[in-house]
Amino acid sequence: MNVNGKWYRAIWPDEHDPETIQIIDQRKLPHRFETVGLTNVEKTIQAIREMYVRGAPLIGATGAWGVYLSMVNMEDGQDPHQYLKTECLKISSARPTAVNLEWAVSAMEKTLLAQENVENWVKTAWVKAVEITEAEVENCRQIGQHGLPLIEEISRKRDGKTVNILTHCNAGWLACVDHGTATAPIYAAFDKGLDVHVWVDETRPLNQGARLTAWELGQHGVPHTVITDNAGGHLMQHGQVDMVIVGTDRTTHTGDVANKVGTYLKALAARDNNVPFYVALPSSTIDWEIEDGVKSIPIETRDPDEVRMVWGLHDKHLVDVLVPPENSPALNIAFDVTPARLVTGLITERGLCKASAAGIRALFPDLSK
Ligand code: MRU
Fold it and tell me: Looking at ligand 1, which atom is closest to the CA of residue 259?
């Protein structure tokens, strides 16, 4: 997608050095655009854990490239199978909630184990990481095509007047290599000339909405307005939200949706106001094991200082500012789970379905257990 008129993805192999994988340092956006080269597993894990990269599909793709880098750095004399197992475990434990990480790393591991000749592992890992990355890009493009008619229908009902879409966190191309999940239908509608406007939840504590979603929509020219996380309910009560589209870090095969904390409250407000609430996701984000998302999806708690501090640009410097009294403790719950009953529908690479075991199974009979 667009960065100052130049086409970028959120992760790509360095064109001059195939042993370096480039990422955008998302911690610095929107005020600085910097890229970082990953050359080994330690740096890759640091990038995932410290959120240089974030968002479920991008974390998955980064994990896949991490396995490739571990193959590049395998030393002579190591037991390759033991080494592969240890490296994969290290990478897939970097963050707990996004299921894509485990999915991508285990796909890499299986592919390598299927290769009898260990000499081929570097090449095989490269090919598989490219495949995973390209598949996620295509999945997101398809999500855009399947979500587009929903926006077109609202636009028709409103006689072409602005369609107002609310989104939470960043489920845009920055979170997904390209296109995004929640943003894919929005970009598709905008590119087709529909009049769309996006309410962007700022998404405390790290403000992925205000910082990342607002930035990438702005780079593409999509009209948008940043709102506080608590403003959505009011806007819905006053008819100013036509639909909600969010992404997800893990959705159970029964339709419960884990996403950035605050999503659940948006779903409740949407239900109370008859606003359709859609979740956009590639199938790599579906958890085929867990039945009850509220009880069983592991929810990451993060550094309390993310709640206590606010980061931004002041006087040309990037600064952190302390908000509460210095000694007040904080709790930083990073995700919440929206029960399936509050979700109008899922937008996937294979089309729309109900957020239910039957709905998901009907679209993905080959992946269901
Ligand atoms: O903690 P983050 O920034 O990795 O948050 C994850 C997310 O980006 C979101 O929850 C997003 O809405 C779903 S992932 C496309």
Answer: 10
Rounded CA separation 132/363 (Å):
20
Q: How far is CA 56 from the centre of its chain?
A: 4
* Inside any domain, residue 369: no
- 223 C-alpha to center of ligand 1: Å? 22
- Residues 217, 322: one domain? yes
DSSP result, 196-252: EEEEEE--TTTTHIIIIIHHHHHHHT--EEEE-TTSHHHHHHTT--SEEEE--SEEE
The pair of structure tokens assigned to 105 is: 């790393």
Cβ-in-10-Å burial (0-12, 13-18, 19+) of 276 comes to middle
What spacing in Å lies between the alpha carbon of 233 and ligand 1's midpoint?
Answer: 21
pLDDT of residue 1: 81
pLDDT tens for 206-236 read: 999 999 999 999 999 999 999 999 999 999 9
How far is Cα 6 from Cα 218, in angstroms, rounded to an integer?
14
Expressed as residue numbers, the domain containing 299 is 144-363
Q: In which residue are the tokens 């094991």 written?
A: 289
Whether residue 228 is found in the same domain as residue 83: no
Query: Is the pTM value of this prediction over 0.85?
Result: yes
